C-alpha cells in the first residue's frame, strides 16, 4: 500500500515509521526545509513541497496513493490537503489530524475526510475507557456513514453476561468487531459467549449508541 503523509513533523514521522515497519510504501511531504530529516526515516521517500499546491501533489503522484494522511499542525492545511486528495486525485482513503477540537465539525466528507483523528478527544476517550465500566465510550469517528468506533466494558450485573452472541438481538446499524478478554483479542463468532469484564468494540451508527448502551448495561432483575 502506498501512503502519502503531509507533514513531516514528529507526528508524521512517527506514523511513517509504523507504516514502514508494516511493509507499506511511504512518502513524506513538507514545505519546511528544516522538516526534511531523511536520516530519521531513511526508508521513506521525501518531498520538499507545499502539499496545498496542485503542482506539488502532481509531483507526489498522489493519484497512485491508496491513503493520504494530513498530519500537519495546521487544521486549515489539513483540510485543504484532504479536499484536494479526494476531489482532484480520487484517493480512496483520507485520514486527517484535528489539532483544535473546536474545528472537529469541519473534518467530514464535505472536506474529503474519511477519518478524523483528534488527539485531545482520543486521549480523553482513552482515559474514560480505562476507568469506565458499563458506559459507552466513543473512541473514533468515521465520517462516511456517520459511524463511530465505540467501546464498552461489560459490567458484572449486565443481563448479557453469559449470553451467546448469536442469541443477542443487536440494534440495527451496529457490529461487534472485537472482544478483548484479559490479554486475549477475540474475533467474535455467533457461538461465543460474553463474559463480565469483556471489553467490547463496536462500529455503530451514532443514532444507535444510546440503544446499544442500554442493551449492554441493563441490570438483571432480582
TrEMBL record:
Keywords: Ion transport, NAD, Potassium, Potassium transport, Transport. The keyword Cell membrane does not apply. InterPro entries: K_uptake_TrkA (IPR006036), NAD(P)-bd_dom_sf (IPR036291), RCK_C (IPR006037), RCK_C_sf (IPR036721), RCK_N (IPR003148), Trk_Ktr_HKT_K-transport (IPR050721). It holds the Pfam family TrkA_N. Residues 137-218 form the RCK C-terminal domain. Residues 1-117 form the RCK N-terminal domain. PANTHER family: POTASSIUM CHANNEL PROTEIN 2-RELATED-RELATED (PTHR43833), TRK SYSTEM POTASSIUM UPTAKE PROTEIN TRKA (PTHR43833:SF5). This is Trk system potassium uptake protein TrkA. It comes from Streptomyces cavernicola.
Amino acid at each position: 500500500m502506498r501512503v502519502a503523509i503531509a507533514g513531516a513533523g514528529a507526528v508524521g514521522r512517527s506514523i511513517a515509521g509504523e507504516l514502514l515497519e508494516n511493509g507499506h510504501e511511504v512518502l513524506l511531504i513538507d514545505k519546511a526545509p528544516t522538516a526534511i530529516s531523511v536520516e530519521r526515516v531513511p526508508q521513506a521517500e521525501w518531498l520538499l513541497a507545499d502539499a496545498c499546491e496542485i503542482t506539488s501533489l502532481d509531483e507526489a503522484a498522489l493519484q497512485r496513493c491508496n491513503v493520504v494522511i494530513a498530519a500537519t499542525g495546521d487544521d486549515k492545511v489539513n483540510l485543504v490537503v484532504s479536499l484536494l486528495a479526494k476531489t482532484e486525485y480520487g484517493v480512496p482513503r483520507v485520514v486527517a489530524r484535528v489539532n483544535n477540537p473546536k474545528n472537529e465539525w469541519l473534518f467530514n466528507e464535505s472536506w474529503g475526510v474519511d477519518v478524523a483523528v483528534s488527539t485531545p478527544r482520543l486521549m480523553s476517550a482513552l482515559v474514560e475507557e480505562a476507568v469506565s465500566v458499563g458506559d459507552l465510550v466513543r473512541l473514533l469517528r468515521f465520517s462516511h456513514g456517520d459511524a463511530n468506533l465505540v467501546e464498552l466494558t461489560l459490567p458484572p450485573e449486565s443481563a448479557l453476561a453469559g449470553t451467546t452472541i448469536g442469541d443477542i438481538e443487536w440494534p440495527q446499524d451496529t457490529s461487534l468487531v472485537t472482544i478483548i478478554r484479559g490479554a486475549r483479542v477475540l474475533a467474535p463468532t455467533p457461538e461465543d459467549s460474553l463474559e463480565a469484564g469483556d471489553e467490547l468494540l463496536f462500529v455503530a451508527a451514532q443514532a444507535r449508541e444510546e440503544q446499544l448502551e442500554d442493551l449492554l448495561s441493563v441490570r438483571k432483575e432480582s
